[in-house]
Write a structure and sequence with these properties.
single chain; 197 residues; alpha/beta; 7-stranded mixed β-sheet
Amino acid sequence: MYFKVWLKSKAADRVLSPLRKQLIELIEEESTLLEIGCGTGDLLFQSAPKISSGYGVDIDQGMIEFAESKRKENNFKHLAFECIDALQLAPRKFDIATSTLCLHELPEKKACDLLKLMVDNSKIVLIADYTEAKSTLGKMSIEFDELLSGHYRNYKHYRKCGEIPSYAGKIGATVQQEIASVIEGISIWRISKHAMT
């Protein structure tokens, strides 16, 4: 197993577990779910008893191999994982599209293109991503993590330009609701297809 995959499955997924539980509470029973940047598939595995089908995509082959192995081990026939750039996906409708801590990592155009893909192919979009942390420790932790992960420039641009609400506005969608996450410095945004008039 690649070190990055091991670290994600043993550390990051555990830290994000309360956030994933919060996201799952927002998912209606028997929904079809698309997850962009699914990593190890943790959200889909946790939501498996609640959803009718789940499809996770990620550009990291090691993450997808881990998720697929776990899917087979647990006999989750209603889940599927694919190593692909989500922008290459054929149009397909889902009840819910989601992404966790993914869009802030990307250049703005690609982040907006991915958000548009999610909005166009689902009834509800749930994005969990960074917002301003309240405490100094929270701010420093996020900044340090972004420096280490190599996304710092994109993260700083994301914060400066207005985060997910700004990206939603740029693609003609609107944020229906912002929910404070149980993890400091992360919000969940519920986004609809068209701006309300």
